[in-house]
Amino acid sequence: MANSVPPKKVLIICGDFVEDAEVMVPFQALQAYGLSVDAVCPGRKTGDICRTAIHVDSSHQTYSESRGHNFTLNATFDEIDASAYDGLVLPGGRAPEYLARDEAVLNLVKHFAKSRKPIASICHGQLILAAAAATSDVLNGRKVTAYPTVGPVLIAAGAHWIQPETMASCAVDGNLITAASYFGHAECIRHFINALGATVTGSNKRVLFLCGDYMEDYEVFVPFQSLEALEGCFVDAVCPNKKVGDTCPTAVHDFEGDQTYSEKPGHNFKLTANFHDINASSYDALVIPGGRAPEYLSLDPAVIKLVQHFMDAEKPVASICHGQQILSAAGVLKGKKCTAYPAVKLNVELGGATWLEPDPIDRCFTDGNLVTGAAWPGHPQFIAQFLSLLGIELPKIHAPVLMSAEETVEETKAVVMCRRRRWGGDVPEVTVICGGGGRWWVVVLVVGEEEW
Protein backbone atom coordinates (compact mmCIF):
# COMPACT_ATOMS: atom_id res chain seq x y z
CA MET A 1 0.00 0.00 0.00
CA ALA A 2 1.51 3.32 -1.02
CA ASN A 3 1.94 6.01 1.60
CA SER A 4 0.65 8.81 -0.59
CA VAL A 5 -1.71 9.31 -3.50
CA PRO A 6 0.26 9.93 -6.71
CA PRO A 7 -0.55 12.89 -8.96
CA LYS A 8 -2.39 12.23 -12.18
CA LYS A 9 -0.16 11.55 -15.17
CA VAL A 10 -0.41 13.13 -18.60
CA LEU A 11 1.26 11.92 -21.79
CA ILE A 12 2.31 14.27 -24.62
CA ILE A 13 3.14 12.76 -28.02
CA CYS A 14 5.86 14.73 -29.82
CA GLY A 15 7.68 14.58 -33.11
CA ASP A 16 10.20 16.61 -35.07
CA PHE A 17 8.85 20.04 -36.02
CA VAL A 18 6.04 19.93 -33.53
CA GLU A 19 4.82 23.50 -33.02
CA ASP A 20 7.06 25.03 -30.36
CA ALA A 21 4.47 26.73 -28.14
CA GLU A 22 1.95 23.92 -28.60
CA VAL A 23 4.25 21.44 -26.92
CA MET A 24 5.99 23.56 -24.27
CA VAL A 25 3.03 25.55 -22.89
CA PRO A 26 0.93 22.49 -21.91
CA PHE A 27 4.06 20.58 -20.85
CA GLN A 28 5.17 23.23 -18.34
CA ALA A 29 1.74 24.59 -17.36
CA LEU A 30 0.43 21.17 -16.35
CA GLN A 31 3.56 20.52 -14.31
CA ALA A 32 3.13 23.88 -12.59
CA TYR A 33 -0.38 22.79 -11.60
CA GLY A 34 1.08 19.70 -9.92
CA LEU A 35 0.55 17.01 -12.56
CA SER A 36 3.16 14.50 -13.70
CA VAL A 37 3.82 15.00 -17.42
CA ASP A 38 5.80 12.76 -19.79
CA ALA A 39 6.76 13.81 -23.32
CA VAL A 40 7.66 11.05 -25.76
CA CYS A 41 8.46 10.59 -29.45
CA PRO A 42 8.50 7.35 -31.50
CA GLY A 43 12.04 6.07 -31.92
CA ARG A 44 13.41 8.41 -29.26
CA LYS A 45 14.39 7.96 -25.61
CA THR A 46 14.67 10.06 -22.47
CA GLY A 47 17.06 12.99 -23.00
CA ASP A 48 16.74 13.01 -26.80
CA ILE A 49 15.42 16.17 -28.44
CA CYS A 50 12.73 17.00 -30.94
CA ARG A 51 13.29 19.98 -33.17
CA THR A 52 10.34 22.37 -33.05
CA ALA A 53 8.76 24.82 -35.48
CA ILE A 54 7.57 28.39 -34.95
CA HIS A 55 4.37 29.01 -36.92
CA VAL A 56 3.21 32.61 -37.21
CA ASP A 57 0.71 34.53 -39.33
CA SER A 58 2.29 36.26 -42.29
CA SER A 59 1.36 38.59 -45.12
CA HIS A 60 1.34 35.59 -47.44
CA GLN A 61 -1.56 33.22 -48.04
CA THR A 62 -0.54 30.89 -45.22
CA TYR A 63 1.54 30.95 -42.05
CA SER A 64 5.33 31.07 -42.09
CA GLU A 65 7.65 28.58 -40.38
CA SER A 66 11.02 28.96 -38.70
CA ARG A 67 13.10 26.83 -36.34
CA GLY A 68 12.10 26.90 -32.68
CA HIS A 69 13.63 25.61 -29.46
CA ASN A 70 15.00 22.10 -29.10
CA PHE A 71 12.48 20.24 -26.93
CA THR A 72 13.97 17.64 -24.59
CA LEU A 73 11.99 14.43 -24.06
CA ASN A 74 11.66 13.12 -20.52
CA ALA A 75 10.47 9.57 -21.22
CA THR A 76 11.16 6.75 -23.68
CA PHE A 77 8.38 5.98 -26.15
CA ASP A 78 8.93 2.21 -26.24
CA GLU A 79 8.78 1.96 -22.44
CA ILE A 80 5.50 3.76 -21.76
CA ASP A 81 2.44 1.97 -20.43
CA ALA A 82 -0.63 3.77 -21.72
CA SER A 83 -2.76 2.45 -18.86
CA ALA A 84 -0.57 4.38 -16.39
CA TYR A 85 -1.67 7.74 -17.82
CA ASP A 86 -4.84 9.70 -17.12
CA GLY A 87 -4.81 12.09 -20.08
CA LEU A 88 -3.26 12.67 -23.50
CA VAL A 89 -2.10 15.84 -25.29
CA LEU A 90 -1.47 16.03 -29.05
CA PRO A 91 0.37 19.22 -30.07
CA GLY A 92 0.23 20.52 -33.63
CA GLY A 93 2.84 21.69 -36.07
CA ARG A 94 4.14 19.49 -38.87
CA ALA A 95 4.89 16.46 -36.70
CA PRO A 96 1.30 15.11 -36.83
CA GLU A 97 1.60 14.62 -40.60
CA TYR A 98 4.01 11.74 -40.11
CA LEU A 99 2.92 10.65 -36.62
CA ALA A 100 -0.52 9.94 -38.13
CA ARG A 101 1.12 7.11 -40.10
CA ASP A 102 2.68 5.46 -37.02
CA GLU A 103 0.62 2.47 -35.82
CA ALA A 104 2.05 2.66 -32.31
CA VAL A 105 0.91 6.28 -32.03
CA LEU A 106 -2.54 5.45 -33.37
CA ASN A 107 -2.90 2.56 -30.92
CA LEU A 108 -2.07 4.93 -28.07
CA VAL A 109 -4.74 7.37 -29.19
CA LYS A 110 -7.31 4.59 -29.54
CA HIS A 111 -6.50 3.41 -26.00
CA PHE A 112 -7.24 6.82 -24.53
CA ALA A 113 -10.38 7.20 -26.65
CA LYS A 114 -11.73 3.77 -25.72
CA SER A 115 -10.98 4.38 -22.03
CA ARG A 116 -12.78 7.75 -22.22
CA LYS A 117 -9.71 9.45 -20.80
CA PRO A 118 -9.30 13.17 -21.54
CA ILE A 119 -7.64 13.98 -24.87
CA ALA A 120 -6.54 17.53 -25.75
CA SER A 121 -5.50 18.11 -29.36
CA ILE A 122 -4.28 21.37 -30.85
CA CYS A 123 -4.11 22.78 -34.38
CA HIS A 124 -2.79 20.02 -36.71
CA GLY A 125 -2.72 17.45 -33.89
CA GLN A 126 -6.23 16.50 -35.00
CA LEU A 127 -4.70 14.78 -38.06
CA ILE A 128 -3.67 12.00 -35.65
CA LEU A 129 -7.26 11.75 -34.38
CA ALA A 130 -8.50 11.48 -37.96
CA ALA A 131 -6.02 8.69 -38.74
CA ALA A 132 -7.03 6.79 -35.61
CA ALA A 133 -10.69 7.19 -36.58
CA ALA A 134 -10.09 5.14 -39.74
CA THR A 135 -10.18 1.93 -37.64
CA SER A 136 -12.15 3.06 -34.57
CA ASP A 137 -14.93 5.41 -33.50
CA VAL A 138 -12.56 8.04 -32.11
CA LEU A 139 -14.32 10.85 -33.98
CA ASN A 140 -17.69 9.42 -34.98
CA GLY A 141 -20.10 12.37 -34.63
CA ARG A 142 -17.83 14.13 -32.12
CA LYS A 143 -17.64 17.95 -32.16
CA VAL A 144 -14.13 18.94 -33.21
CA THR A 145 -12.32 22.09 -34.27
CA ALA A 146 -8.77 22.55 -35.56
CA TYR A 147 -6.67 24.76 -37.78
CA PRO A 148 -9.09 25.42 -40.69
CA THR A 149 -7.11 23.48 -43.31
CA VAL A 150 -7.55 20.32 -41.22
CA GLY A 151 -11.35 20.59 -41.45
CA PRO A 152 -11.91 18.53 -44.63
CA VAL A 153 -9.88 15.62 -43.21
CA LEU A 154 -11.87 15.64 -39.97
CA ILE A 155 -15.18 15.72 -41.85
CA ALA A 156 -14.07 12.76 -43.95
CA ALA A 157 -13.13 10.93 -40.73
CA GLY A 158 -16.68 11.28 -39.42
CA ALA A 159 -16.27 14.23 -37.07
CA HIS A 160 -18.84 16.97 -36.50
CA TRP A 161 -16.72 19.85 -37.76
CA ILE A 162 -16.84 23.15 -35.85
CA GLN A 163 -15.44 26.00 -37.93
CA PRO A 164 -13.23 28.09 -35.63
CA GLU A 165 -14.49 31.66 -35.32
CA THR A 166 -10.99 32.77 -34.26
CA MET A 167 -7.64 31.06 -33.86
CA ALA A 168 -8.39 30.96 -30.11
CA SER A 169 -11.50 28.82 -30.61
CA CYS A 170 -11.94 25.54 -28.73
CA ALA A 171 -14.49 22.73 -28.90
CA VAL A 172 -15.39 20.35 -26.09
CA ASP A 173 -17.24 17.06 -26.59
CA GLY A 174 -17.08 14.89 -23.50
CA ASN A 175 -13.50 13.78 -22.94
CA LEU A 176 -12.32 15.34 -26.23
CA ILE A 177 -10.98 18.91 -26.17
CA THR A 178 -9.75 20.48 -29.41
CA ALA A 179 -8.27 23.89 -30.18
CA ALA A 180 -7.62 25.74 -33.42
CA SER A 181 -4.14 26.95 -32.51
CA TYR A 182 -1.84 27.97 -29.65
CA PHE A 183 -3.92 31.11 -29.20
CA GLY A 184 -6.53 28.84 -27.61
CA HIS A 185 -4.17 27.33 -25.04
CA ALA A 186 -5.79 28.96 -22.01
CA GLU A 187 -9.28 27.63 -22.72
CA CYS A 188 -7.98 24.26 -23.93
CA ILE A 189 -5.87 23.70 -20.80
CA ARG A 190 -8.73 24.84 -18.55
CA HIS A 191 -11.12 22.30 -20.10
CA PHE A 192 -8.46 19.58 -19.98
CA ILE A 193 -7.92 20.17 -16.25
CA ASN A 194 -11.69 20.05 -15.73
CA ALA A 195 -11.87 16.76 -17.62
CA LEU A 196 -9.20 15.37 -15.31
CA GLY A 197 -11.50 16.12 -12.39
CA ALA A 198 -10.38 19.51 -11.12
CA THR A 199 -11.01 23.23 -11.38
CA VAL A 200 -8.15 25.70 -11.21
CA THR A 201 -9.29 29.17 -10.16
CA GLY A 202 -7.39 32.43 -10.24
CA SER A 203 -9.20 33.95 -7.24
CA ASN A 204 -10.01 37.09 -9.29
CA LYS A 205 -6.35 38.13 -9.29
CA ARG A 206 -5.15 40.73 -11.79
CA VAL A 207 -1.63 40.17 -13.15
CA LEU A 208 0.41 42.52 -15.34
CA PHE A 209 3.16 41.40 -17.75
CA LEU A 210 5.91 43.89 -18.62
CA CYS A 211 6.87 43.13 -22.22
CA GLY A 212 9.32 44.41 -24.80
CA ASP A 213 10.68 43.58 -28.24
CA TYR A 214 12.73 40.39 -28.29
CA MET A 215 11.71 39.16 -24.87
CA GLU A 216 12.27 35.38 -24.69
CA ASP A 217 9.47 33.48 -26.42
CA TYR A 218 8.83 30.79 -23.79
CA GLU A 219 9.32 33.24 -20.93
CA VAL A 220 6.28 35.25 -21.94
CA PHE A 221 4.01 32.63 -23.55
CA VAL A 222 4.25 29.92 -20.88
CA PRO A 223 3.53 32.01 -17.74
CA PHE A 224 1.01 34.25 -19.55
CA GLN A 225 -1.09 31.37 -20.88
CA SER A 226 -0.67 29.34 -17.67
CA LEU A 227 -2.22 32.22 -15.72
CA GLU A 228 -4.87 32.87 -18.40
CA ALA A 229 -5.99 29.26 -17.98
CA LEU A 230 -7.00 29.91 -14.36
CA GLU A 231 -10.71 30.64 -14.09
CA GLY A 232 -11.18 34.18 -12.80
CA CYS A 233 -7.58 35.28 -13.32
CA PHE A 234 -7.25 38.48 -15.39
CA VAL A 235 -3.94 38.91 -17.25
CA ASP A 236 -2.71 41.97 -19.15
CA ALA A 237 0.43 42.46 -21.24
CA VAL A 238 1.87 45.92 -21.95
CA CYS A 239 4.93 47.42 -23.62
CA PRO A 240 6.16 51.04 -23.56
CA ASN A 241 5.14 53.03 -26.64
CA LYS A 242 2.77 50.30 -27.85
CA LYS A 243 -0.99 49.91 -27.62
CA VAL A 244 -3.67 47.21 -27.44
CA GLY A 245 -3.41 44.84 -30.39
CA ASP A 246 0.20 45.71 -31.21
CA THR A 247 2.68 42.87 -31.13
CA CYS A 248 6.14 42.34 -29.72
CA PRO A 249 8.51 40.08 -31.64
CA THR A 250 10.03 37.44 -29.39
CA ALA A 251 13.38 35.67 -29.36
CA VAL A 252 14.06 31.94 -29.07
CA HIS A 253 17.01 31.51 -26.73
CA ASP A 254 18.34 27.97 -26.64
CA PHE A 255 21.35 26.00 -25.49
CA GLU A 256 22.95 24.31 -28.50
CA GLY A 257 26.57 23.69 -27.50
CA ASP A 258 27.94 27.18 -28.00
CA GLN A 259 29.61 29.23 -25.25
CA THR A 260 26.37 31.15 -24.78
CA TYR A 261 22.75 30.72 -25.83
CA SER A 262 21.74 30.96 -29.49
CA GLU A 263 18.97 33.22 -30.77
CA LYS A 264 16.31 32.64 -33.40
CA PRO A 265 13.10 34.58 -34.17
CA GLY A 266 10.09 33.50 -32.12
CA HIS A 267 6.33 34.08 -32.19
CA ASN A 268 4.72 37.50 -32.25
CA PHE A 269 3.11 38.23 -28.89
CA LYS A 270 -0.05 40.37 -28.91
CA LEU A 271 -0.43 43.06 -26.23
CA THR A 272 -3.72 43.42 -24.37
CA ALA A 273 -3.50 46.95 -22.92
CA ASN A 274 -1.95 50.38 -23.49
CA PHE A 275 1.16 50.94 -21.39
CA HIS A 276 0.47 54.60 -20.64
CA ASP A 277 -3.18 53.97 -19.72
CA ILE A 278 -2.63 51.32 -17.07
CA ASN A 279 -3.28 51.96 -13.40
CA ALA A 280 -0.64 49.95 -11.54
CA SER A 281 -2.65 50.04 -8.32
CA SER A 282 -5.41 48.00 -10.00
CA TYR A 283 -3.10 44.98 -10.44
CA ASP A 284 -2.21 42.44 -7.79
CA ALA A 285 1.09 41.24 -9.24
CA LEU A 286 3.78 41.77 -11.88
CA VAL A 287 5.66 39.35 -14.18
CA ILE A 288 8.88 40.32 -15.97
CA PRO A 289 9.98 37.95 -18.77
CA GLY A 290 13.63 37.69 -19.80
CA GLY A 291 15.29 37.78 -23.18
CA ARG A 292 16.88 40.89 -24.66
CA ALA A 293 14.01 43.27 -23.90
CA PRO A 294 15.11 44.01 -20.30
CA GLU A 295 18.35 45.59 -21.55
CA TYR A 296 16.49 48.57 -23.01
CA LEU A 297 13.42 48.50 -20.77
CA SER A 298 15.70 49.13 -17.79
CA LEU A 299 16.52 52.55 -19.29
CA ASP A 300 12.86 53.67 -19.38
CA PRO A 301 11.85 55.87 -16.39
CA ALA A 302 8.21 54.81 -16.72
CA VAL A 303 9.21 51.16 -16.47
CA ILE A 304 11.36 51.87 -13.42
CA LYS A 305 8.48 53.68 -11.72
CA LEU A 306 6.10 50.80 -12.49
CA VAL A 307 8.43 48.18 -11.02
CA GLN A 308 9.07 50.33 -7.93
CA HIS A 309 5.31 50.57 -7.34
CA PHE A 310 4.91 46.78 -7.13
CA MET A 311 8.02 46.27 -4.98
CA ASP A 312 7.28 49.16 -2.62
CA ALA A 313 3.73 47.89 -2.15
CA GLU A 314 5.14 44.38 -1.54
CA LYS A 315 2.91 42.92 -4.24
CA PRO A 316 4.05 39.59 -5.77
CA VAL A 317 6.68 40.09 -8.48
CA ALA A 318 8.05 37.25 -10.62
CA SER A 319 11.13 37.90 -12.76
CA ILE A 320 13.06 35.39 -14.84
CA CYS A 321 16.38 35.17 -16.66
CA HIS A 322 17.44 38.68 -17.79
CA GLY A 323 14.35 40.30 -16.27
CA GLN A 324 16.39 40.95 -13.14
CA GLN A 325 18.32 43.61 -15.08
CA ILE A 326 15.20 45.77 -14.67
CA LEU A 327 14.95 45.01 -10.95
CA SER A 328 18.58 46.01 -10.48
CA ALA A 329 18.15 49.25 -12.44
CA ALA A 330 15.05 50.07 -10.37
CA GLY A 331 17.06 49.79 -7.15
CA VAL A 332 14.63 47.29 -5.61
CA LEU A 333 17.05 44.42 -4.99
CA LYS A 334 18.82 45.82 -1.94
CA GLY A 335 18.69 43.24 0.84
CA LYS A 336 16.96 40.67 -1.35
CA LYS A 337 18.09 37.15 -2.18
CA CYS A 338 17.60 36.17 -5.79
CA THR A 339 18.85 34.28 -8.81
CA ALA A 340 18.93 35.06 -12.54
CA TYR A 341 20.59 33.87 -15.69
CA PRO A 342 24.26 33.49 -14.62
CA ALA A 343 25.41 36.28 -16.94
CA VAL A 344 23.18 38.68 -14.98
CA LYS A 345 24.91 37.89 -11.66
CA LEU A 346 26.87 41.14 -11.93
CA ASN A 347 23.67 43.21 -12.18
CA VAL A 348 22.15 41.36 -9.23
CA GLU A 349 25.14 41.84 -6.94
CA LEU A 350 25.71 45.48 -7.95
CA GLY A 351 22.01 46.01 -7.23
CA GLY A 352 22.64 45.04 -3.60
CA ALA A 353 21.13 41.52 -3.63
CA THR A 354 22.58 38.27 -2.35
CA TRP A 355 23.23 35.98 -5.29
CA LEU A 356 21.61 32.53 -5.20
CA GLU A 357 23.26 30.04 -7.54
CA PRO A 358 20.77 28.42 -9.96
CA ASP A 359 22.09 24.91 -9.68
CA PRO A 360 20.49 23.21 -11.51
CA ILE A 361 19.40 25.84 -14.04
CA ASP A 362 15.70 25.15 -13.42
CA ARG A 363 15.93 26.08 -9.73
CA CYS A 364 13.81 29.05 -8.62
CA PHE A 365 13.66 30.99 -5.36
CA THR A 366 11.14 33.02 -3.36
CA ASP A 367 12.25 35.81 -1.02
CA GLY A 368 9.38 37.75 0.48
CA ASN A 369 7.26 39.08 -2.38
CA LEU A 370 9.85 38.22 -5.04
CA VAL A 371 10.10 35.05 -7.15
CA THR A 372 13.16 34.72 -9.39
CA GLY A 373 14.25 32.10 -11.89
CA ALA A 374 17.32 31.62 -14.06
CA ALA A 375 15.81 30.47 -17.35
CA TRP A 376 12.73 28.92 -18.99
CA PRO A 377 13.50 25.30 -17.95
CA GLY A 378 12.45 26.43 -14.46
CA HIS A 379 8.94 27.52 -15.45
CA PRO A 380 7.07 24.81 -13.49
CA GLN A 381 8.76 25.93 -10.25
CA PHE A 382 8.61 29.59 -11.23
CA ILE A 383 4.86 29.55 -11.91
CA ALA A 384 4.03 27.36 -8.91
CA GLN A 385 5.93 29.65 -6.52
CA PHE A 386 4.29 32.72 -8.04
CA LEU A 387 0.83 31.18 -7.64
CA SER A 388 1.66 30.48 -4.01
CA LEU A 389 2.52 34.16 -3.46
CA LEU A 390 -0.77 35.12 -5.10
CA GLY A 391 -2.58 32.91 -2.62
CA ILE A 392 -3.89 30.64 -5.36
CA GLU A 393 -4.18 27.11 -4.04
CA LEU A 394 -4.07 24.48 -6.74
CA PRO A 395 -6.26 21.41 -6.29
CA LYS A 396 -4.68 18.04 -5.59
CA ILE A 397 -5.26 16.30 -8.92
CA HIS A 398 -4.67 12.74 -7.78
CA ALA A 399 -4.86 9.42 -9.56
CA PRO A 400 -7.05 6.70 -8.03
CA VAL A 401 -5.31 4.25 -5.68
CA LEU A 402 -5.54 0.56 -6.60
CA MET A 403 -6.49 -1.67 -3.68
CA SER A 404 -6.14 -5.47 -3.58
CA ALA A 405 -9.27 -7.61 -3.88
CA GLU A 406 -8.66 -9.01 -0.39
CA GLU A 407 -9.07 -5.65 1.33
CA THR A 408 -12.54 -5.06 2.72
CA VAL A 409 -14.56 -1.92 2.24
CA GLU A 410 -14.11 -1.16 5.96
CA GLU A 411 -10.32 -1.45 5.70
CA THR A 412 -10.39 0.72 2.59
CA LYS A 413 -12.37 3.45 4.34
CA ALA A 414 -10.03 3.30 7.34
CA VAL A 415 -7.02 3.89 5.08
CA VAL A 416 -8.72 6.82 3.37
CA MET A 417 -9.79 8.42 6.67
CA CYS A 418 -6.20 8.15 7.86
CA ARG A 419 -5.13 10.04 4.74
CA ARG A 420 -7.80 12.65 5.34
CA ARG A 421 -6.35 13.34 8.77
CA ARG A 422 -2.84 13.61 7.33
CA TRP A 423 -4.09 16.09 4.71
CA GLY A 424 -5.64 18.20 7.46
CA GLY A 425 -9.14 16.83 6.96
CA ASP A 426 -9.74 18.97 3.88
CA VAL A 427 -10.45 16.07 1.51
CA PRO A 428 -14.18 15.73 0.72
CA GLU A 429 -16.12 12.52 1.10
CA VAL A 430 -14.76 9.30 -0.39
CA THR A 431 -16.58 6.97 -2.77
CA VAL A 432 -15.54 3.31 -3.06
CA ILE A 433 -16.45 1.64 -6.34
CA CYS A 434 -15.81 -1.76 -7.82
CA GLY A 435 -13.41 -1.76 -10.75
CA GLY A 436 -12.70 -4.40 -13.36
CA GLY A 437 -10.99 -7.67 -12.55
CA GLY A 438 -12.49 -7.98 -9.08
CA ARG A 439 -10.33 -5.19 -7.66
CA TRP A 440 -11.37 -2.37 -5.38
CA TRP A 441 -10.54 1.19 -6.33
CA VAL A 442 -10.60 4.09 -3.92
CA VAL A 443 -11.66 7.32 -5.57
CA VAL A 444 -10.60 10.26 -3.41
CA LEU A 445 -12.72 13.27 -4.33
CA VAL A 446 -10.17 16.03 -3.93
CA VAL A 447 -12.10 18.74 -5.76
CA GLY A 448 -15.48 19.83 -4.46
CA GLU A 449 -18.08 17.07 -4.49
CA GLU A 450 -17.47 15.87 -8.03
CA GLU A 451 -17.57 12.08 -8.48
CA TRP A 452 -15.09 10.36 -10.82
From TrEMBL:
A Pfam family that the UniProt record links to this protein: DJ-1_PfpI
Domain DJ-1/PfpI: residue ranges: 8-185, 205-387
InterPro entries tied to this protein: C56_PfpI-like (IPR006286), Class_I_gatase-like (IPR029062), DJ-1/PfpI (IPR002818)
Listed CDD domains: GATase1_PfpI_1
Coiled coil residues, start to end: none
Membership in a protein family: Belongs to the peptidase C56 family.
Protein name: DJ-1/PfpI domain-containing protein
UniProt organism field: Mikania micrantha (bitter vine)
